[in-house]
Each structure stands twice: as structure tokens, then as C-alpha cells.
């Protein structure tokens, strides 16, 4: 894995196997397992689609090269979410960090108010699949 979309630092610790499709869920599960097994490996943290997004139905352009993935969400809402979260975390995209470094940064700077600002309108939050406390518990467990 070479790139990681910054808002996925919130999604991955909460991911339980539900997604847009079986292909998306399978891909996200694989990427989550890889990241947790390679916590120290440097990644390019981006504010654009990454390899997790490769199976998302909202992509206009799909290629195995993460740099050519283009999200078709109206108004670039997901990219705005990435940019806002990067700012909250004091990061500028792209930046080289390991999964452990990114998750540590999020744990240090994230609180319930910031979590709600970033995730409060997300369909997974609205479905009740995530919340700040659960994210924090899972993030702390990954970092042990």
C-alpha cells in the first residue's frame, strides 16, 4: 500500500465489514489488515482517493495507480472532509507518515467535537456504526 486518504484514519479503526459492496468491503478489510501488520512502513497521506477507494462506486476513473483515482461525489465533499481533517490534525497533504504515526497524531488531536465535525454527516455514522468513544478504544488497541 502506497497511499492512504487522511479521513481513513477515522474509518479504518471502526470498519466492521460493511461497505458499498462486497468488493469494497473485501478490499477495505485487506488494506486494514495490511496497515495493522505494517504499522511502521511509510505511506503517502493524501486528500484524494487512495487504494481503499479503488472499489468505491463513486469513482469516475479507476486505475490500479492510486494517483488516477477520481471521486465523483458532488461538490467534492469527501475531499473537503480530507482537507478539513488534515487541517485539524495539523497536516498538509501529501505527507509521508506511517500508519502508526498518523493514528498517533489523530489520537492526540481528536476529541468528540472534532470527530462529530468530521464524521457527523457520514452515512456510516448516521447508521450508528461508529462514534468517538468506539473509535478511540479501537485506535488505542491498534497502537498497543
Describe this structure in words.
The chain has about 140 residues and is α+β, with helices and mostly antiparallel strands. About 45% of the residues lie in helices and about 10% in strands. It contains seven helices and five strands, in the order βααβββαβαααα. The protein has helices at about 10, 20-35, 75-90, 100-110, 110-120, 125, 130-144, and strands spanning about 5, 40-45, 60, 70, 95-100.
How is this structure best summarized?
The protein is an alpha+beta fold.
Topology, please?
Elements: E1 3-5, H1 8-11, H2 22-37, E2 42-46, E3 59-61, E4 70-71, H3 77-88, E5 95-98, H4 99-109, H5 112-119, H6 123-126, H7 132-143
Parallel strand pairs: 1-2
Antiparallel strand pairs: 2-5, 3-4
Relevant terms:
5 strands; two-stranded antiparallel ribbon; 144 residues; 3-stranded mixed beta sheet; alpha+beta
Distance between the termini: 22 Å
The parts where pLDDT drops under 50 for at least 5 residues are none
User: What is the percent of helical residues?
Assistant: 40-55%
What Rg do the Cα atoms give?
14 Å
- Oligomeric composition of the shown chains: single chain
Amino acid at each position: 500500500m502506497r497511499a492512504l486518504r487522511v479521513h481513513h484514519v477515522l474509518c479504518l479503526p471502526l470498519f466492521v465489514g460493511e461497505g458499498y459492496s462486497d468488493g469494497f468491503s473485501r478490499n477495505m478489510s485487506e488494506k486494514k489488515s495490511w496497515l495493522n501488520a505494517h504499522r511502521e512502513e511509510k505511506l503517502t497521506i493524501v486528500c484524494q482517493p487512495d487504494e481503499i477507494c479503488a472499489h468505491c462506486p463513486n469513482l469516475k476513473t479507476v486505475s490500479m495507480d492510486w494517483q488516477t483515482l477520481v471521486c465523483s461525489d458532488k461538490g467534492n465533499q469527501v475531499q473537503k472532509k480530507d482537507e478539513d481533517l488534515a487541517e485539524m490534525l495539523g497536516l498538509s497533504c501529501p505527507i509521508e507518515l506511517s500508519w502508526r504515526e498518523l493514528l498517533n497524531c489523530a489520537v492526540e488531536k481528536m476529541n468528540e467535537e472534532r470527530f462529530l465535525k468530521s464524521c457527523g454527516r457520514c452515512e456510516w455514522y448516521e447508521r450508528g456504526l461508529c462514534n468517538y468513544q468506539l473509535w478511540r478504544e479501537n485506535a488505542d488497541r491498534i497502537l498497543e
